[in-house]
Write a structure and sequence with these properties.
heterodimer; A: MetI-like fold; about 0% strand; B: alpha/beta; 8 helices; ABC transporter permease (chain A); MetI-like_sf (chain A)
Chain lengths: ~260, ~260
């Protein structure tokens, strides 16, 4: 009981600093230290939140943005993971593709925005393409690293005990690569939001980024600030989800054992 | 007291084999026939002729880099001889019944202890039968209550016992041991040697132990083979009754003989 309470206290500790910042911000706004046309008070942002929530506009925009983010993530992640596996397991595949991929990796994917707009216009494909491209590399690089980092002594052990290639992959290689794959996953989730927000701010007709840009046009600074706060929350949510998955699938790892 | 010491001393000069009931030699377990192995043009092993009978406990010793581990890798089928051949006896058709245990336990960190032991039954047993056999062999190495643990919480000696259980669960006819106790502390090591002897006496497999520890070799083996620069330099029987007592004068006698050969004294 006291242990659970302790656990709760620990996780609440992380929210202490944001809460103090919010309180200070509200106080400073009320005291007139921060002009409302520079940064609205949290209460004003809260009001904007309620208004947009009731009109359904907010939910719709979050839904659209999340859908875009996840679709792009699934596409880019799946390709990155498959190529990472292929290049980790086959020297031929690695020699054939790795140099090319490393060259493309060094182009900032956001630099492709003008080209992407010319190719796809401001349609959904443009955003999917950018998110998928952004997510692809962290997943690819970390999957490849993870597989190359699997202890060769364990692989030899598996061979001696007569494991088939499939068994070797499922029981030795994949679990060994998993910690590194999770690092890639968490990086990719961050890049996923970043890319989507930039893409939506530049060219979109719906979504959170679009909402923020519209608000800027009409000088609705409370809505702009609200969008930014929602980005922060969504990012945190995605990261928590990844950490949760990490905790259940890496129980064996000394770093995740809570004994 | 003095009389006893004198008798003991005499038993050195009189062949010790008087008190030793030599066990009948079984069929051939494996035989190296003029085996040589080269790595990149450098001869690691040359002209190795070695017949080992079923149920024998052979220790292979030598200075580091003498080729003793290569011998074991050839036996386990991890490498192929450059020339000559390795013949397995009728009881062992192929490398499948040869298990190798390394200096490192090589346990899967993401599998619980019992699951790690079941790796030893890959392609032999599955499901409940595998689970049951795994737990039985864990009990034999004295870890019956640790099946549900992660390997990371075990001590070095316990991990090596799990590795031993994994090697034995499939009933190998040959167990190749590549300095399996090398990384353990001295006391755990003696404990493991006794465990190994007990299990070998019970299961009657052929054991080939590579070690650099002469004391360990004479304490465990029926026969000690010394390898020097890729060749067999000495092949010595150790006719001492089992279970053997550590640091007994008979063992010390053989130990001295081997050390003399190793350092050409």
């Amino acid at each position: 009981m006291s242990r659970a309470l302790h656990q709760f206290g620990r996780s609440a500790l992380g929210w202490l600093l944001p809460a103090v910042l919010l309180a200070g911000w509200e106080g400073a706004s009320r005291a007139g230290l921060i002009p409302a046309n520079v940064l609205p008070a949290p209460s004003a942002v809260g009001e904007a939140f309620w208004k947009l929530l009731w009109s359904g506009e907010l939910i719709e925009n979050i839904r659209i943005s999340t859908l875009r983010a996840l679709s792009g993530f699934v596409i880019g992640g799946a390709i990155g993971f498959s190529l990472g596996l292929a290049n980790g397991l086959s020297a031929l595949s690695r020699e054939l593709t790795d140099t090319t991929l490393q060259m493309i990796r060094n182009i900032p994917h956001l630099a492709l925005i003008p080209l992407v707009i010319l190719w796809f216009g401001i349609d959904e494909q443009a955003k999917l393409f950018l998110v998928a491209l952004g997510v692809f590399f962290p997943i690819y690089v970390n999957t490849l690293l993870g597989i190359q980092g699997v202890d060769p002594q364990l692989v030899e052990m598996g061979r001696i005990y007569g494991m088939s290639r499939t068994e070797l992959f499922l029981r030795v290689i994949l679990p060994g690569a998993l910690p590194s794959i999770f690092v890639g996953l968490r990086y990719a989730l961050g890049i996923m939001w970043l890319t989507l927000i930039v893409a939506e701010t530049i060219s979109a007709s719906s979504g959170l980024g679009y909402m923020a840009m519209q608000a800027r046009e009409f000088l609705l600074i409370d809505v702009v600030v609200l969008s930014i706060l929602i980005y922060a929350l969504l990012g945190k949510l995605a990261d928590s989800l990844a950490r949760f998955l990490e905790r259940i699938s890496l129980q064996w790892h000394p770093a995740f054992q809570t004994v | 007291m003095t009389a006893a010491t004198i008798t003991a001393r005499q038993s050195f000069t009189v062949p010790i084999a008087l008190t030793y009931t030599s066990r009948p030699k079984g069929e051939l377990a494996f035989s190296f026939r003029n085996v040589a192995k080269q790595f990149g043009g450098k001869a690691v092993l040359q002209g190795i002729n070695l017949d080992v009978h079923e149920g024998q406990f052979v220790a292979v010793i030598g200075k580091s880099g003498c080729g003793k581990s290569t011998l074991l890798r050839l036996l386990a089928g991890l490498d192929k001889p450059t020339s000559g051949e390795l013949v397995h006896g009728s009881g062992t058709h192929d490398h499948k019944r040869t298990r190798i245990m390394f200096q490192e336990p090589r346990l899967l960190p993401w599998a619980r202890v019992a699951r790690n032991v079941e790796v030893g039954l890959t392609g032999i047993e599955k499901g409940d039968v595998a689970r049951k056999k795994g737990l039985e062999i864990l009990a034999e190495v004295g870890l019956d209550d640790r099946g549900g643990e992660w390997p990371s919480v075990l001590s070095g000696g316990q991990r090596q016992r799990v590795a031993l259980a994994r090697a034995l669960v499939g009933h190998p006819s040959i167990l190749a041991l590549d300095e399996p106790l090398g990384a353990l502390d001295a006391l755990t090591r003696i404990e493991m040697q006794q465990l190994l002897e007990r299990i070998w006496l019970a299961k009657k497999f052929t054991a080939v132990l590579v070690t650099h520890d002469v004391t360990e070799a004479v304490a465990l083996a029926d026969r000690v083979v010394v390898i020097d620069s890729g060749r067999i330099a000495l092949d010595l029987d150790i006719p001492v009754e089992r279970p053997r007592r550590h640091a007994s004068p008979e063992l010390a006698f053989f130990e001295r003989q081997i050390l003399d050969r190793l350092y050409n004294r």
